Structures are given as structure tokens and as C-alpha cells.
Amino acid sequence: MAEPMELLCWGGDWDLPSVHTDSLIVLAYAKFSGAKLAVKSIDWTWRTITASVPQLHYEASTVTEPTQILNFLRKQRFNADYELTAKQGADTMAYIALLEEKLRPALLHTFWVDADNYANLTRPWFTSHSPFPLNFFVPGRQASLALSRILLTKAESPLLNITEVEGKIYSEAKECLNLLSHRLGNFHFFFGDTPTSLDAFVFGHIAPLIKAPLPSGQLQKHLNQLDNLCQFCNTILKNYFNASAEKRTDCSPTAIHDPVDANLQKLTQLVNKESNLIEKMDDNLRSSPQHRPNSTPPS
Amino acid sequence: FILKAEAAIMVRAAEPWPEKATLYQPLKEDQILLSDSASSLAVQTFLRMCGLPVQVSCCANAEYMSPSGKVPFIHVGNQVVSELGPIVQFIKAKGHSLSDGLDDVQRAEMKAYMELVNNMLLTAELYIQWCDDYTATEISRPRYSSPYSWPLNHILAYQKQWEVRRKMNAIGWSGKNLEQVYEDVSQCCQALSQRLGTQPYFFNKQPTELDALVFGHLFTILTTQLTNDELAEKVKSYTNLLSFCHRIEQTYFKEHDRESQSGSSRHSKGSLP
């Protein structure tokens, strides 16, 4: 590979490498398949309104949409699905369709349409991560796109009213989460011990739901009751995104104390070494005669 | 007596399936389009698999009579239910179910595959009908508006086309071209074919609503004449899917085959080649 592949995506928060579902899917898959990506966040750039995220640049070509990007990575021989059987590959397609149809509308609603969440969490976050004057437009545009998608796909045409659809999409989403939980069972990943593209898709959808501090999150409460899915998410974060989790010690109150302690220990050791050095040098200076050069090397 | 008591406990007090249950769909000869025909056939197949008799009634305004705006819908007793998902649940409340024998993981798989068919096959059918200019002009608009006179036929046809294109835009399919859509259909059929393998039905011995749905779509694709045969060719390349369709046609539609297929319509090519 002459130059690394470059990925444009939304930035991270709440313990996650990115807050955007599609970006998370691509990031997770890249980690699973061992692809090295130069991740560029579009926060605070004009790309927040011009680019369709996530976007992969390699040599002269540009690829958008998670499915297309994953296909592209597979063609570049970064394949996390190598060991799947044909039937498992078919199952992957089916479960991804399930996620898109049943879970995505409710996720869009939770983050972009629900008044509480939108006003207190989503809009402030996206506003603070967009440059002036785009911060006035970006959240509103995303919200209206989300609303129109929900209405066009789920609302029955004579009743184009969001409140009637809400009950339906949330109950479908809860059912979808239950189905995923049943399918995952006690395993670490959906197909055995190594993660695949299905794991990336599921992770991308449920991670923001688990980690975001939502003021009103009935779906989040439901998800928190499904222990194996929460465990699944945390396992992936711990094993594949550990480095980025360590850096964010300020905004994650649940940061593990071990890295902090380890850093403190290292610092203490360095200080001790320095003070030992200084003492030794001091001794040498005092004990050496004046016209003999002090060439004792520090230990 | 015990049976009666159990039945009474069930939701809606389980009125028995009436003799005069009716299924409504658009006019078969002139009006119905590929996607509606597929959905309608899926429901009919499901009802036959459950052993519930239903009369098919074709009305020009079936879409407007439906509570959700989508066809087909069934009129049972004094209730009206539309679309396969709610109909399956309604029939389950009446005590008939095809998927009772499945465990949780299998049920999850079944639901996932049904969504795959809805997400890919149905969306592809809608795209080909309404977003491909040639098909829309030659087939979809004329057929959709055939029961109405000018200028209503133009208005309704364009309105429907606009609605479908808006939906395609919202889910990101408007950027696709026809080749990519055919490719998606092919991948979906490949997934179904791999899942089916050599089994008679998707969950081995017993048919479920998934079999009904897949049959509805594949049979309609194979027997409907569009501007070109490419869609049907994509399906035909998977032999186990073809034999699956044959098998269900033989098992559940055999006795009606000769009655309903008489008088071939311009749209449908009749039974499978």
C-alpha cells in the first residue's frame, strides 16, 4: 500500500471513537480486519455540510456508504468475513437488513426527533462540533432528514403524523434488540470467537445508544436490560478501541483507574531517577578535586 | 368444552375463521403492478399454508380502502387488516401459526430474512417499476391509472411515482442505477439460495411465513412480463429457488391452477416455465 487509506468521519465522544453510526461501522470493521486507516474527523470543518460521511479516500477513488466501503476494503484484501460459511454470509445480509428496517428508525427518532434528546444532547453536540456559521444549519438539516426518512418508510400514507408512528417504531426496535440478544446468546461475537462485518454493524448501531447520556431514553433502558449486548459492546471497545478510550480520561467518568495509576507510577519513577541522578552528581562535584575534570558519567 | 374455554381466553375471543373472508387487491388483468402482486400472492400463500379459505376480490380502489394505504388487505368478520406482518399476527391471535415450532434463534433468523426480502426485493421491485423511466412510462403509469379517466389517471399516476421516488431518495436508493439494483437482487437471491440449500423449506420440513413471502416475490418476478427479462433471469440462475417455487405452486395452488390460470392476462405469463 503506497499511502494509507483516509477515512472522513464524525468525531468521537462518550467513550466512543465516533458518535455517528455509519462511521462507527467502518471504524470497527477496519479494526477487525486489520486495515490501517488514517482517520480524519470532519468536526469543525466545512465538510460537516458538504461531505457525506463516512467517506473513504484511496489513491484517486472515493467510496461512501458503509456497505460500499466494506466491499472496497474486502477487495483490498482486508476481509474479516473470510472464515464465514456461505450460510453465515447469507445470515449476515439478513441481519443487516433487520437492523436497517427495525432498529435504524427508532435510533434516528431517539437522537434526532425526540424533543428532549434533540434539544439537550444531539443539537448542542453537533452545534459545538461544527464551524461558524454552519452550526446553525447542520443539526437542523440532519434532523429534518431523519424525520422525513422515518415518515416516508414507516408512516402509513394517510396518517403522516409522527406521534402515531412512534409507538410502532419503538416496539419494533425493542423486538429487534431482543432478537439480536437471542441470536448472540452467550458468545462473544455473532459468529464464534472472531468479529465479522455483522459485529461491526451491530456495534455501530447499539454503541451510541448505550454510551450516549440521553435525557429521555426508553430504548436505552430496554437495551441496558440486555446484558449480553452491553457486554458485547464493551468487549469491542476494550479490545479494539482501547487506545482511544485511554486518551479520553476527562470526559469519561467511568475511565478505568489502572492507566491513570500506571502513568502516575511511571512519573514517580522518573522523578525518583532524576533525584537520584542529581544526588550523584552533587556527590561527585563535592568529592572531586578542583583541577581534576569531572568526567564521571552519570549512572 | 375445554376447547371452547381455551378459545375464549385468546385475544378477540377467537371467532372462528368465517366462510366469507375476503382478500382485496387491485384489478388483476389491467391494474396490479409487480410489487403489489407479489405482496398479494405472499398473503394468499400464507393463508393457504394455514388452511384458511379466502376469496380474492379485485377492486380498482383497493389501495384506498386499505387502512394503511397498502395492498393487500383482508376483511375477516368485522376487522380489516393489511400487509403480511400484521396479518400474520392477526391470524396468530386466532390460533393459527406456522412458526410456533421455531425456537428463539430460529425465529430471529426468520424475521431477519423476511426483512431482507422486504428491504431488497420489494425495494428493488418498486425501484424498477417507478424509478426506471422506461418501465414507468411503458408499464407502471398506464397500468396504475387504467381504471380512471383523463385527467385523473395522469394525476394519480404521477402522484404515486412522486411518492415512491421520494421514498427511494430517503433511503438512499435514488443514487443507484439499474445495474446496481439488478446486482442487489442477485445478491439477495444468492443469500436466500444459500440459506435454503437443499431443504424443502427454509426451516426444513414445515413451511413458515418466510416461505410464503419468498414464494410470493419470486413467483411473481418469474411470471411477470416487464420491459426486459433481466430480473427473471437473475432469479432463474438459482436452481434451488426455482424448484422451491415449483414445489409450493404444486402443493398449494395445484387444484386452483387450472381454474385461475385460464385466460392468460397480458401481464402475467401464467404458470412457471
TrEMBL record, chain A:
<dbReference type="InterPro" id="IPR017410">
    <property type="entry name" value="Metaxin1/3"/>
</dbReference>
<dbReference type="InterPro" id="IPR033468">
    <property type="entry name" value="Metaxin_GST"/>
</dbReference>
<keyword id="KW-0472">Membrane</keyword>
<dbReference type="InterPro" id="IPR019564">
    <property type="entry name" value="Sam37/metaxin_N"/>
</dbReference>
<dbReference type="Pfam" id="PF17171">
    <property type="entry name" value="GST_C_6"/>
</dbReference>
<dbReference type="InterPro" id="IPR036282">
    <property type="entry name" value="Glutathione-S-Trfase_C_sf"/>
</dbReference>
<feature type="domain" description="Mitochondrial outer membrane transport complex Sam37/metaxin N-terminal">
    <location>
        <begin position="23"/>
        <end position="141"/>
    </location>
</feature>
<keyword id="KW-0653">Protein transport</keyword>
<comment type="similarity">
    <text>Belongs to the metaxin family.</text>
</comment>
<keyword id="KW-1000">Mitochondrion outer membrane</keyword>
<keyword id="KW-0813">Transport</keyword>
<dbReference type="GO" id="GO:0007005">
    <property type="term" value="P:mitochondrion organization"/>
</dbReference>
<protein>
    <recommendedName>
        <fullName>Metaxin</fullName>
    </recommendedName>
</protein>
<keyword id="KW-0496">Mitochondrion</keyword>
<dbReference type="InterPro" id="IPR050931">
    <property type="entry name" value="Mito_Protein_Transport_Metaxin"/>
</dbReference>
<feature type="domain" description="Metaxin glutathione S-transferase">
    <location>
        <begin position="173"/>
        <end position="236"/>
    </location>
</feature>
<dbReference type="Pfam" id="PF10568">
    <property type="entry name" value="Tom37"/>
</dbReference>
<dbReference type="GO" id="GO:0015031">
    <property type="term" value="P:protein transport"/>
</dbReference>
<dbReference type="GO" id="GO:0001401">
    <property type="term" value="C:SAM complex"/>
</dbReference>
Automatic annotation (TrEMBL), chain B:
<feature type="domain" description="Mitochondrial outer membrane transport complex Sam37/metaxin N-terminal">
    <location>
        <begin position="40"/>
        <end position="161"/>
    </location>
</feature>
<comment type="similarity">
    <text>Belongs to the metaxin family.</text>
</comment>
<protein>
    <recommendedName>
        <fullName>Metaxin-2</fullName>
    </recommendedName>
</protein>
<dbReference type="Pfam" id="PF10568">
    <property type="entry name" value="Tom37"/>
</dbReference>
<dbReference type="GO" id="GO:0015031">
    <property type="term" value="P:protein transport"/>
</dbReference>
<keyword id="KW-0653">Protein transport</keyword>
<dbReference type="InterPro" id="IPR040079">
    <property type="entry name" value="Glutathione_S-Trfase"/>
</dbReference>
<dbReference type="InterPro" id="IPR019564">
    <property type="entry name" value="Sam37/metaxin_N"/>
</dbReference>
<keyword id="KW-0813">Transport</keyword>
<keyword id="KW-1000">Mitochondrion outer membrane</keyword>
<dbReference type="Pfam" id="PF17171">
    <property type="entry name" value="GST_C_6"/>
</dbReference>
<dbReference type="InterPro" id="IPR036282">
    <property type="entry name" value="Glutathione-S-Trfase_C_sf"/>
</dbReference>
<dbReference type="InterPro" id="IPR033468">
    <property type="entry name" value="Metaxin_GST"/>
</dbReference>
<keyword id="KW-0007">Acetylation</keyword>
<comment type="subunit">
    <text>Interacts with MTX1/metaxin-1. Associates with the mitochondrial contact site and cristae organizing system (MICOS) complex, composed of at least MICOS10/MIC10, CHCHD3/MIC19, CHCHD6/MIC25, APOOL/MIC27, IMMT/MIC60, APOO/MIC23/MIC26 and QIL1/MIC13. This complex was also known under the names MINOS or MitOS complex. The MICOS complex associates with mitochondrial outer membrane proteins SAMM50, MTX1 and MTX2 (together described as components of the mitochondrial outer membrane sorting assembly machinery (SAM) complex) and DNAJC11, mitochondrial inner membrane protein TMEM11 and with HSPA9.</text>
</comment>
<keyword id="KW-0472">Membrane</keyword>
<feature type="domain" description="Metaxin glutathione S-transferase">
    <location>
        <begin position="186"/>
        <end position="248"/>
    </location>
</feature>
<keyword id="KW-0496">Mitochondrion</keyword>
<dbReference type="InterPro" id="IPR050931">
    <property type="entry name" value="Mito_Protein_Transport_Metaxin"/>
</dbReference>
<comment type="function">
    <text>Involved in transport of proteins into the mitochondrion.</text>
</comment>
<dbReference type="GO" id="GO:0001401">
    <property type="term" value="C:SAM complex"/>
</dbReference>
<dbReference type="GO" id="GO:0007005">
    <property type="term" value="P:mitochondrion organization"/>
</dbReference>
